[in-house]
Amino acid sequence: MDEAGDEYCSESFVGINLKASCMKNLKIICRLVVCCGLILICVLSFSHTATADCITGACHQQLKSFARLHEPVGEGDCQACHEAVVSEHPLEKGQSFKLFAEGRDLCLSCHDAFDPAAGKLHPAVAEGECLVCHDPHGGSRIGLLKNADDVKMICLECHDANSFEQKFVHGPVAAGACLECHTPHQSRYEKLLLSDPKSLCLKCHAELAAGLEGATVIHAPVDDGTCSDCHETHGSSFVHLLKEDGIKMCFSCHEELADKYNKARTKHAALYKDDHCGNCHAPHFSNHASLLTTERESDLCLRCHGQDDFRRSKSLKNIRAELAANEHLHGPLVDGKCSTCHDPHGSDFFRLLVDAYPETFYAPYRKGTYAFCLDCHEENLLRFPETSIYTRFRDGKRNLHYIHVADPRKGRSCRACHRAHASNGPKLMNETGASFGNWKIPLRLVLTETGGSCSPGCHRRMSYDRKNPVTEK
Amino acid sequence: MSVTVTVNRCHVIRIACSAVLLYLLILLSACAAPEVAGPQGSVFFPPAPNPPRLQYLTMISSSADVDGKKLGGLSIIAVGDTRAEKPKPIIKPYGITVSNGKLYVCDTAPGRLIVIDPARKSFEFLKGNYSFGKLKKPISSEIDSDGNLYVADAVRKEVLVYGPSGNFLRAFGKSLGMKPVDVAIYGDYLYVLDLHNHDVKILDRKSGKHLETIGKIQDGKHLLSMPISIDSGPKGSLFISNMSSGKIVNLDRDGHLLGEFGKLGDGFGQFGRPKGLAVDDHGRIYVVDAAHQNVQIFNKDGRLLMFFGDPGLPFGSLNLPAGIAVTSQGIDLFKKYIDPAFEVEQLIFVTSQFGPAKISVYGLGKLMD
């Protein structure tokens, strides 16, 4: 004890053995300090024990059922979020604890905040409603979600379930795997997508991605990456998750074809069955013009028009056989083009022809009646009875095409002498004869350097010569 | 009296000196005649704000505009007669034809035909224009695939034929009683436009034999009325301008009427006095109008596309225009006149019978992207 201590003792306890009594007091003080320490330890111990009791006690048993506990819960640190407002717990009425903060502010005391500039926020995130999706005590192994097995159920608490309940649903939708496509908090892409739509789709549809890599012709929406122009992303009433019934889907962009489809006098059967447009066109990509599925257009047509079909009483004509059996092909067919003459989407003319051509054997020429042929062939072929220009089938200047076709009473159509697709004769002359009822009229044409003669079933042998007219009438 | 005589003599001498000085001044000023300056900035048709489709490029009025040899201002005084170096002028041009980059210009007043080769910078008079081959009033000409030149002479009332080297070969059609004003060639046939009979005579281009006459009457209708110019289109049909009816008539080579457009009037697509006519590779039809003093361009269906050359411009106006020729060849030879931002597809040559610009050169095209 130093002098100051002695002095203090002398002043405080006058008349007593000051030194002895100071020592005694010091012991008491020490004991008091120790007791206070023990009490404090007991109090603190009581608190800790009380938390541990939240999880293990009889009141909060449900906290044990989570696959994964929120970290503070797992560590028994309930007071990371809760604080006691009264010492008594549980209370019959009212609450013993309250949260340190409300909503997002409580979460942000530990978790980092989302930067609004980094992308669009999920409305729940933006509004700080974390508990819409997450359970604060525990939940799925990833993200403490309320329902990890079917995330969709969490989503549908807010989002309309209608598109998820269609006849056809997208695989991830059916599996409740919304997070395969969407990110839950924030995204730079529309609809909180994980990436741009095209990449996102091709992430799973790898066979499509592989095909697109080598394709030379790509459907515009595919190329633009707007798959949702044609497909619903969640569910649809139509197969392939299309937004509309197959052909209507196509017409939503290809409007000009809708009119033909609905109003054409002659309809192409292929357009009205099975895959409709898809019977001829690939929807996503192709290596051929117009997204056709074959390189040569004629190969595509001959898939249907190039075989004998004995199942039907009025089957399609086997054009493949006709082409194979004849040496000379009509010009467009040499290039494998059928659409030069036929409109596969529908036509107001006979046999889907692109312009007017008579259906009958007899059809006198009038302006426009043979527009189909004269679109390519000399337009003035049948216009003048005399010509030195428009045809080689003339006697001097006497236009024999005019005489045959423009006869106002009995003008014959081109089919009387020519075949449409192929022939073994020059100028597609129909050597085997045109059908005239049950009879095939033989042509028996003989050509010379400056003219020729023929002796068909129509008349006796008659000759013509361009340089030295025969002038037979 | 003597004083008076002296004074009068002095006065006469003074007047004589003044006259000589004036003459010398006139002579000197004539020798140093200002060449027509090029356009200050490009002249385009149609005018803004329409996008330009045609540019006036230059003019040719004498050999100096082709070979670049100008007559020096003092040469007459210093050397005396320098006739050999004098530029050869174009006096009163009418028909003009372009073939293989050469221009064949009928100069009616002096009765000669000028062959201009911009590539060689040559300006020459037709070699065979003398004796039996002497031209009196050449109106128009045409070149065949062998390089022979066929000239319609309205006074001789014949078609004169000159070989590729310019020598006279023969003359056709005297016996047909026609007034030939233009010729067109297709294959072996020569189509001679007869102003007097309002028709087209078809001759064998080698023998001159008259084969047929077309264009008279079809379905009770006179097809041609004072036809003045003929050209064949890309498909070989014949386009003919008619001064009296103001129509451009399209006949096939057999004489069938394929179509017609235009009429007399002063509206768009109408004509006051249609003259020269040309058809380009794309089927566009160019018609010169001597009354409106411009050229109207039509598409193959007779729809008016644009017009150019109207009077009143410092450059690019026409003055009693007559003939026209169009070509897509030799554009590079006029490159220095073409605006750098303009891309020329066709050259157009138009003759004016009066004014400083006897042949006006235009370029049809478009602004480059």
Tell me what you see in this structure.
The complex is a heterodimer of chains A (473) and B (369). Chain A contains 17 helices and 19 strands. With 473 residues, chain A is an alpha+beta fold. Chain A folds into four domains: 3-57; 66-198, no CATH class; 260-338, no CATH class; 355-465, no CATH class. In chain A, strands 17-18-19 form a three-stranded antiparallel β-sheet, with no helix packed on it. Chain A has a two-stranded antiparallel ribbon with strand order 1-5. A two-stranded antiparallel ribbon of chain A has the order 2-3. In chain A, a hairpin with a 2-residue loop joins strand 15 (434-436) and strand 16. Chain A is rod-shaped and about 160 Å long. The N and C termini of chain A lie far apart (159 Å). With 369 residues, chain B is mainly beta. Chain B has two domains: 1-27; 45-367, Neuraminidase. Chain B has three helices and 27 strands. Chain B has a five-stranded antiparallel β-sheet. Chain B has a four-stranded antiparallel β-sheet with strand order 3-4-5-6, with no helix packed on it. The longest helix of chain B has 30 residues, at 2-31. The chains are: A alpha+beta (473), B mainly beta (369).
Fold topology:
The complex is a heterodimer of chains A (473) and B (369).
Chain A: H1 3-12, H2 18-56, E1 68-69, H3 71-74, E2 82-84, E3 97-99, H4 103-108, E4 120-121, H5 123-126, E5 138-139, H6 151-155, E6 168-169, H7 171-174, E7 186-187, H8 197-204, H9 206-214, E8 217-218, H10 220-224, E9 235-236, H11 246-251, H12 255-263, E10 285-286, H13 297-305, H14 319-325, E11 328-329, H15 331-334, H16 371-374, E12 394-395, E13 398-399, H17 400-405, E14 422-423, E15 434-436, E16 439-441, E17 445-447, E18 451-454, E19 462-465
Antiparallel strand pairs in A: 1-5, 2-3, 4-7, 6-9, 8-10, 11-14, 12-13, 15-16, 17-18, 18-19
Chain B: H1 2-31, E1 43-45, E2 54-60, H2 64-67, H3 75-79, E3 93-99, E4 102-107, E5 112-117, E6 122-125, E7 138-143, E8 149-153, E9 158-162, E10 168-172, E11 180-186, E12 189-194, E13 199-204, E14 210-214, E15 217-218, E16 221-222, E17 227-232, E18 238-242, E19 248-251, E20 257-261, E21 274-279, E22 285-289, E23 294-298, E24 304-308, E25 321-327, E26 342-352, E27 359-367
Antiparallel strand pairs in B: 1-2, 2-27, 3-4, 4-5, 5-6, 7-8, 8-9, 9-10, 11-12, 12-13, 13-14, 15-16, 17-18, 18-19, 19-20, 21-22, 22-23, 23-24, 25-26, 26-27
